Amino acid sequence: MQRWRRFGYLLLLAIPVVFGILVLNFFLIHLAPGDPASVLAGEGGAATPEYMAALRAKFGLDRSLMEQFLTYIGNALRLDLGYSFRNDAPVAQLIFDRLGPTLLLMGTAFVAALTGGITLGLLAASARNKLRDAVISFLSLLCYATPGFWLGLMLIVVFAINLGWLPTSGLEDIGAFNEGWDRVWDIGRHLILPASTLAVFYLALYSRLMRASMLEQTGMDYVVTARAKGLSERGIVYGHIMRNAMLPVVTMAGLQAGNLIGGSVVVETVFGWPGIGTLAFNALQSRDLNLLLGIFFVSACLVVVINLLTDLMYITLDPRIQIR
Predict the structure, then answer these.
(1) Which run of H or of E encompasses 256?
(2) Which run of H or of E encompasses 178?
(3) If 0-12 CB within 10 Å is exposed, 13-18 middle and 19+ buried, where does residue 264 land?
(4) Are 190 and 104 within 8 A, CB to CB?
(5) Does an H or E element contain 223, and which?
(6) Helix 276-285 to helix 91-126 angle, to the nearest 10 degrees?
(7) In the chain, at which end, N or C, are there fewer CB atoms within 10 A of the end residue's CB?
């Protein structure tokens, strides 16, 4: 019960954060050059002053910036994200249709990076200055320095084109009309390469952080005391050191949530993954401001929720931490 009260307290703190993001996104988007009317007029091949004025009136761009802002805030408070004239559909519907694949990609990459990073960091720290430590540290450094888009392209060349083991792009084989577990297997095969590409950088980061944190905790007084009491080395590592060593890793994982969403834009573009990353890229190219603002709003909410869950995990790992 106390944990949920703390969750409610953190949720109240998140409300002004989300509102500030709404305001910041609106003015940053409208400071950018270009508008939807000029893009649509250029695509239609008719850029007469009358046609441009009609498009601006249709999008509401002929009103003052403050009027547009107040309308945007009022709609956002009613959870109305507006209408995408470029896609001729409500923004909420467009985002909802793409949110599932993005959450699947992000969740898989996040879990793989966190569990893999903690495991590799633990294995490296338990064999300090030995061959296993050197191999894991070298591979972590290599993965940390490898650009995500290059890694994605190389994975496509090796595993999709040369070996033919995995598909190159998309969420599933649309023409196969798979159902049930066949569809789950099909989506899983399509997920392996993009999730691996997105997870590798963070896996390397968490493994290096976990190794350093494990080595730091090993020299603490409470570990010496535990050994003096006769506890087994396995019990000390898994019952005391690992629990405290995970705190900075969990903190970093929460802070990296925003970067994970940003990284998914690149990965979704490389693999043709139908998520909100590719939707944001297309919206940016077509100056679809309502859709961009909606995607930024949903992304900000995702980051806030992930950080709330991180705070709860932090409290679970160390109950001495109090939220005031």
Answers:
(1) none
(2) none
(3) buried
(4) no
(5) helix 221-228
(6) 120
(7) C
The contacts found for 74-80 with CB under 8 angstroms, 24 or more apart, are 76/22, 76/297
Contact 223, 191 (CB under 8 A): no
What is the structure's pLDDT at 116? 92
pTM: 0.80
pLDDT tens string 231-265: 888 888 887 788 788 888 887 887 777 777 777 77
Can you tell me the distance from the alpha carbon of 125 to that of 216, in angstroms, rounded to the nearest whole number?
A: 10
What pLDDT digit, counting tens, does each position of 97-145 carry?
Answer: 888 898 899 889 988 998 999 999 989 988 888 899 899 989 988 888 8
pLDDT digits (tens, 9 = 90+) for 151-187: 888 998 899 888 889 888 888 887 777 778 888 898 9
Tell me the one-letter amino acid at 94. L
Token duo for residue 46 = 């008719």
| Nearest CA-CA partner of 268 in 289, 287, 251, 282 | 282
Would you tell me how many other CB atoms lie within 10 Å of the CB of residue 322?
Answer: 7
* 3-class state of residue 98 by DSSP: helix
Residue type, 149: F
Cα angle at 16 between 14 and 22, to 5 degrees?
105
| Structure-block tokens of residue 79 | 């959870």
CB distance 172 to 184 below 8 Å: no
295 CB-near residues (< 8 Å, 6+ apart): 95, 276, 279, 280, 283
Does residue 47 surpass a pLDDT of 70?
A: no
Q: What is the DSSP letter of 90?
A: E
- 8 A C-beta contact, residue 6 and residue 315: yes
Give the residue from 59, 57, 53 showing the smallest Cα distance to 85. 59
Question: What is the maximum alpha-carbon separation in the chain?
Answer: 86
Residue identified by tokens 């290096």 is: 208
Burial 149-173 (b: 16+ CB within 10 A, else e): eebbeebbeebbeeeeebbbeebbe
